[in-house]
Structures are given as C-alpha cells and as structure tokens.
Amino acid sequence: MAHTPGQWEPCDGASVGNLEWPTHVKRTFLDEQGRRVTQFVATCNDMLPEVHANARLIAAAPEMLAALKLAVGEGSSFACPEETEAKLLAAIAKAEGH
Known about the structure:
alpha+beta; three-stranded antiparallel sheet; two-stranded antiparallel sheet
C-alpha cells in the first residue's frame, strides 16, 4: 500500500467542532469538486517533549523518500560508498514496507 500523497505539514493542536486534536500532521488538498479537504495523516502524543520535532519529521517523510529514490535511482549521478548506498536502499525498503 502506498502512503498518503504529500504535501504534509506539521500543526499544533486544533479544534474541529467539539473535537480537540493534539499536535498533528495534515494534508490539505482540493477534491474533484474543488472543495478544500483537510486529511489528518498522523497525530503525535502531546506528552512527549519532542512532539513538535516528531511532527516536522513525519511531515518531511514524503519529500525525503522521493529524494532517496532520486539519489539511488537509475541514471543517478550521485556517487557514494557501497555501505551508504545499502543504508539508503534499506531506508527506502523500510518506508515502503518491504
């Protein structure tokens, strides 16, 4: 299964109607009818001191995955030691659930 498409963005807590959302990562896009839709991608435990850093890291994940694929993809001119390339490929496999 593929991940939710980016652009993701970290956000502090929010209220939607009677619901309270903790720090979260969201995606905002226009649907087929041109309506603005907000999709919550992840929530982060507000009790952790590093919650905002976690939200920023999660929000950057789609762009980081794309950059990794670009770096090690066919035709790439990016040169790195074999050990580094193995770590990049392992990170891609982990992100894709392999």
